[in-house]
Amino acid sequence: MSRATPPQARPKILGRAAAVRAVRAAKAAGERVVFTNGCFDLLHVGHVRSLEEARRHGDRLVVAVNSDASVRRQKGPSRPIVPARQRAEVVAALACVDWVVVFGEDTPLRAITALRPDVLAKGGDWSLDTIVGRREVEGWGGSVVRLREVRGVRTTELVRRAKRGTGGGRPSKGARGEEATARRSGRRG
């Protein structure tokens, strides 16, 4: 029996020009391309679920990851915790992600307009009128979707709990409910 080689993460990390070529090729093949972005400083279940949901809106998912300087400008001098290249590689390792591009601007607008996705997906904590790139994507006939928010799972909260030395393995309120359901049904999590 031969084993298929799993896809590697690093080749999925592209410069902007290579990402534009990949997206154009996918669209030329009739594939629907979804774009989302974020810092992804400490990858957690909220990120994973959002990325999986984003991918369900199309055939390909491109994720733009904020550069270190961009994260510092948004989150302050103590962030990011993990360097951009490593954050990009961890995101790229997820099966639902096709390509990752790092961007250095304060917003992903330049990446969005360069890539011209069919779908712009953003977390449910963003209102439609605050989603950067919405006007542009809708202007070329694309759509904008808000993803479900996983309550109680935020990187900022994880960092705060780690600094306090609390929460060692204690799941969020929503996750506790899921774990109880899994125990009742005999599943393991």
Compute the number of structural domains: 2
The largest pleated sheet is described as: 5 strands, parallel
Would you give the CATH topology of the largest domain? Rossmann fold
Question: How many beta strands in the DSSP annotation?
Answer: 5
CATH class of the largest domain: Alpha Beta
Q: What is the string of SSEs from the N terminus onward?
A: HEHEHHEHEHEHH
Q: Structural class of the helix and strand makeup?
A: alpha/beta
Give the oligomer, counting copies of the same chain as homo and different chains as hetero: single chain
- The radius of gyration over CA amounts to 17 Å
State the helix count: 8
Distance between the termini: 30 Å
Please identify which CATH superfamily of the largest domain we are dealing with: HUPs
Measured as a percent range, the helix fraction is: 40-55%
Explain this structure:
It is a single chain. The protein has 189 residues and is an alpha/beta fold. It has 2 domains: 10-150, Rossmann fold; 153-189, no CATH class. Helix content is 41%, strand content 15%. It contains 8 helices and 5 strands, in the order H-E-H-E-H-H-E-H-E-H-E-H-H. It has helices at residues 16-28, 45-55, 68-75, 84-92, 109-115, 134-139, 155-164, 173-185, and strands at 33-38, 60-66, 99-103, 119-123, 143-147. It has a 5-stranded parallel β-sheet with strand order 3-2-1-4-5, with helices on both faces. Strand 1 (33-38), helix 2 (45-55) and strand 2 (60-66) form a beta-alpha-beta unit. It starts with 15 loop residues before the first helix and ends with a helix. Residues 174-189 have low confidence and may be disordered.
